[in-house]
């Protein structure tokens, strides 16, 4: 996983708030501007409005050096800077920082990139721009967002998405993932967290993988679409519509395999079970592979 921590850059004097003071700033930007936000600890809340401006309110935590606001027009950076430190990756000095609260209003069509360490992130009501959020331990919530490209990554925080995304990628190590509204190309990955997808439209290309976390997907499959699920020890539950048209291949080495489509085959000797069935015209492809987890395919 490539989790970005965006706290590097030149220290410029214009556009800053001193530690321990309230934040109340406004900057003019283009309607489709790119907005970069970074925070160490606390929270980042971003919502949309119909103005070509970025409004920033909140409070800067004690111990932070400053809030640097740089750029304008097509690109704006809002960055919480920690105390001076000797090395680029010397994060020890950040432990003395108190929480910084950032509340931003941005143009509805803006593209957004947020990087945090230990801060919760909430994004809502954006439409048309790309959205990317990278977090180490904070919770990520993205709602009422319509984006052509969505990227959400967290190490230990949970991730929730409820909106529309043509191309989405969500990754965690131990956090749970809940994605509602995805329909186009979707990729979900976790080590030990639980993955749940509820599609709002037929899925076109969906990949979900985990080591020990459970995977649950509910939704239809577009003509020519593909669903691919892999897990080592997590359980898998796949809910499909009765009018499904797809070829299904499922296999579990030592877990239990159940399906409302076709007949599960078990070897005469030894563990394991498998399923290979063509449903309808077989327009799409569905592949499920588990080593020790149970696999359940249900008709909904």
TrEMBL record:
Keyword Mitochondrion: no
Recorded superkingdom: Bacteria
Segments crossing the lipid bilayer: none
Signal found in the keyword field: yes
Residues annotated as domain DUF4097: 34-298
Signal peptide (from-to): 1-19
Keywords from the UniProt entry: Signal
Pfam family, one: DUF4097
Name recorded for this polypeptide: DUF4097 domain-containing protein
Native organism: Tahibacter harae
């Amino acid at each position: 996983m490539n989790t970005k921590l965006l706290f590097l850059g030149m220290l410029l004097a214009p556009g800053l708030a001193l530690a321990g003071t309230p934040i109340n700033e406004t900057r003019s930007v283009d309607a489709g501007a790119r907005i970069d936000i970074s925070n160490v600890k606390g929270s980042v809340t971003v919502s949309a409005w119909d103005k070509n401006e970025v409004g920033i309110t909140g409070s800067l935590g004690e111990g932070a050096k400053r809030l640097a606001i740089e750029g304008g027009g097509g690109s704006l950076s809002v960055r919480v800077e920690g105390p001076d430190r000797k090395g680029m990756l010397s994060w020890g000095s950040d432990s003395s920082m108190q929480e910084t609260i950032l509340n931003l209003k941005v143009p509805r069509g803006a593209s957004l990139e947020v990087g945090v360490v230990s801060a919760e992130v909430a994004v809502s009501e954006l439409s048309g721009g790309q959205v990317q959020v990278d977090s180490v331990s904070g919770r990520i919530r993205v709602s009422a967002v319509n984006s052509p490209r969505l990227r959400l990554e967290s190490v230990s925080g949970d991730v929730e998405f409820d909106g529309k995304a043509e191309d989405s990628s969500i990754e965690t190590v131990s956090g749970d993932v809940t994605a509602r509204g995805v329909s186009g190309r979707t990729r979900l990955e976790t080590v030990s967290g639980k993955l749940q997808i509820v599609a709002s439209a037929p899925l076109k290309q969906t990949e979900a993988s985990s080591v020990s976390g459970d995977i649950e997907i509910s939704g239809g499959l577009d003509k020519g679409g593909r669903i691919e699920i892999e897990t080592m020890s997590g359980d898998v539950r796949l809910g499909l519509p009765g009018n499904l048209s797809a070829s299904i291949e499922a296999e579990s080495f030592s877990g239990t395999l159940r399906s409302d489509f076709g007949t599960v085959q078990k070897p005469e000797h030894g563990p394991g079970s498998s399923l290979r069935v063509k449903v309808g015209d077989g327009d799409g492809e569905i592949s499920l592979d588990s080593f020790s987890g149970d696999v359940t395919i249900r008709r909904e």
